Structure formats: structure tokens, C-alpha cells
Amino acid sequence: MAVTTTQQNASAGATEDLLGMAQWAVEQAGTSAQYVQAYAERTVEVRVECLDGEVLATCVEPREGLACMVLQDGRWRHRAFSVAELPSLPRWLGAEGTPAAGEALAWPEPHATGFTPVSPQDWLVQGAAPAHSLRTMEDFTTRAIAVVDTAGVRASGHSRFVRRRVEATVESGGNRYRGLNRWLERGPLAGGAERDAVPQDVARVAVEHAHDSARAELGGRHRTPVVFAPSAAVALLHELVGHALEGDNFAMQSDYIAELRRPGALPASLTMYDDATLPDGYGSYDIDDEGIAGTTTVLVSQGELGDPLSSVRTARRHDYRPTGNGRRRDYRALPLPRASNTVVPRGTEDPAVLLAPSSDGLLHVGCLGAGMINLRSGEFHFAALNCAYITPDGHRVPVRDVSLVGDALETLARVEGTGSDFGGDSVTCGKQGQMLGIGLFSPSMRYSALDWSAA
């Protein structure tokens, strides 16, 4: 889908109007605070859910309002205001009087989203065997924001993307098995053509994964080398290292993070960075949610830690370098230091060589699923999807319901190969109740040994 000049001009006008609202909010604070930040937002989210070629539900959620974050007498305060609540903002800030009639309510008018969902029938995979059921979700988001603060920030931005997810289900032997796939299309950050994908092709991959899951037979506990496919490799590193390098987490005095800071804790082969400027990243942005320009931040360079990701509050509190990683779910939430797109650059090794099995075989992980790491101890457990066990003689056997467990520092020390391939994915990541989109980009990576189990 193309973004027309009319749509681009409408977006520019909307963000300019939001800038005026944010400027008005900052001016209400007068000179009583050490710092004031105003964030104005208009977002429209549309979700279309289909089952086997029929629409199940269409949900539309508009979100618009303004938030103020204030540092006064050494204490941070934050409050969100819906459009109807804006007249109360001056009183909350301690300003005298009330806004002129209508002044606070001159909220910009909405514009058409320009979104056309995929026809339900276009998802269906013709001739796929075995018989399957197909559940699809198409999420469209258009978002305009503006930020003004007393430190000189005056910035606005607009983003627009569609994320498609497919869940295929097949039945075998009285049981049901699932396969998943997803794909992202985002509007250009600075102009240029958008990419598109055939919905049926996205769905066909999910059906293939479901079929593999139905054929899986291997179970039990194992300890073998593990190769993570592109994007799955950086998903593990995002969890083990990326979250530890978010400014508020990095400041914790935990045993695990203290060990991460120790020279030599990470392999010299590891380089990893956060990049908000990627044209096709789920977490990309021109400005973060505090008006700071999106940029690239080195997290790890040849095994040495770089800068922690910071928001305004964490940068001021811990004297961190500002990195432009203050992100929030919407105007009602506090900005937190969060990743944008986590990237591991290409290596030099042939991906086929990385997949050479040991005498114990090898696990190939296609996608990392849900799980968690304990940032105090470094212990982790994650589900893994689209997996296969490669036998010592080279046969590929599908496995399902895979769980990975271990100690993060021990696992990181076992990195033994980085491929010359490269791939990306779009995921949602949670922190303090806020789910945000994160991009993941990396080559394949091999670990000498990990503990895993399969159902």
C-alpha cells in the first residue's frame, strides 16, 4: 500500500497541531519546575481477525491525549490527560487561573487512516495438505506524536505500519498442532516505496510449520549444540543482554549485571547494537517518545559493553549518555528505557557448516517464543518454535514444545560461530505492563551446548 502525498501532508499538519498543544502545556508550568516535558499523541489501531476466510471481529481503538512529566524539588511527577481533561492541566501544574475558553480544547481533527485490510479469502492456502484451519490477525497502527520540553526539545513524528500474524492448526491422531508466521510492513520514515507480501504466502509458511509439528516424535531432555536461525539468534541475546542494558535495569546492583560488567564476561566475537533508524524495523522511529532523535547505540563491541539505553529520567538520575530510547505504550504511560531494534551484524561462517551435528546431534531453533530471564541471577527459560533435531548422521527430525533453560553467563560463553546469513523479525516485548514492538535482526549463531527438552 502506498502513502499518498495527501496523506503525508495530512500527517504533517496533524503533528504540527500536536506540537502546539504540547507547547501550550509546557507554558502552563511557568518557572516553578526544574524540568517539564509534554507529550501529545493521536493513535488509531485497527485489528481485523479472520478464521478460515471469514471475518471474526474488527476492533478500532483511537487513543489521543497529552501527558506531562515534571521534575520539581527533586521529585518526578507524571500525569496523563485525555482531551476532555485538558482544562485541568494548568491547575495540576500549579499555574494560576484557567486557560482561555476553548484554548485547551483546540485538539486537531482526525484524518482518514487510508487502511484497507486483506480480503479474508486472500489468506486461504489453496491445495495445502493436510487439511488445516487458519486464524489470521492484521494489526494496523497510525501514530502521530509531538514532544516539547524545557530543555529545548521541540519535535514531532509520524509512524504507520501493518503487522500480519497467522496461526495454522492441523489435526493428527486426535490432537491439534499449531504453526505460526508473521510479517511486517511499515510506512517509510523519510519517503520511499513500501514493500508488500502475498498474504497466502505468509499463511503457507504457518501451515508448513503446523505440519512439521504434527510429525514431531522426539521428546525428553537433551544437551546438544544449538543453532539459532537468523533473528532467533538475536532474540536470545536481546533477552540475555539487551534487557540488562536498559538503563533502569543496568543500574540495579544485581549479581548477574555485576558479572556482565566484568571484563571478559562476554565473548570477544560478540557485537550487538540498538538501531532506531532501520527503514524496516518494527521498533524504528524518527524520534523517541521524549522527542530525542532515533540513533544507533552500541551495546556490545567485540565483547566489551557499550552504553546503556536511556530515557530522560534514567539519563538524569544515573548520569548516562542520552541515547533516545525513551519509549511508551501511549500517552497514559511513563516513558521507559526500551530497545528499538536489536541487531547483531553478519559473521563470516557458512550457515551450512554451523549446522554440522555433533555426536549428540544438534538442535536448530527457528524462532524464540515466550519466556523470561531473572536479571538478578541470570537464570532463564524460553520456549522455542519451528525447531528441528539434526541427528548425528545428518537427518532432520521436527520437534515441538521445545524449552530452553540455563544460566545466561554460561550460555554466552558458549557462542562458537556466527553465520554470514542475515534475517529479521518483528516481536512484541513487555516491561512494567507496557507491550511494545521490537525489531530483531541477526545472522545464524551456534552455541556449543544448551539444555533443552521437547514434548
UniProtKB/TrEMBL annotation:
Pfam families: PmbA_TldD_3rd. It comes from the Bacteria. Residues 223-424 form the Metalloprotease TldD/E C-terminal domain. InterPro entries: Metalloprtase-TldD/E_C, Peptidase_U62_metallo, TldD/PmbA_sf. Residues 318-345 are annotated as: Disordered. Belongs to the peptidase U62 family. PANTHER family: METALLOPROTEASE TLDD, UNCHARACTERIZED PROTEIN TLDD AND PMBA. This is Metalloprotease TldD/E C-terminal domain-containing protein. It comes from Streptomyces similanensis. The lineage of its organism: Bacteria, Bacillati, Actinomycetota, Actinomycetes, Kitasatosporales.
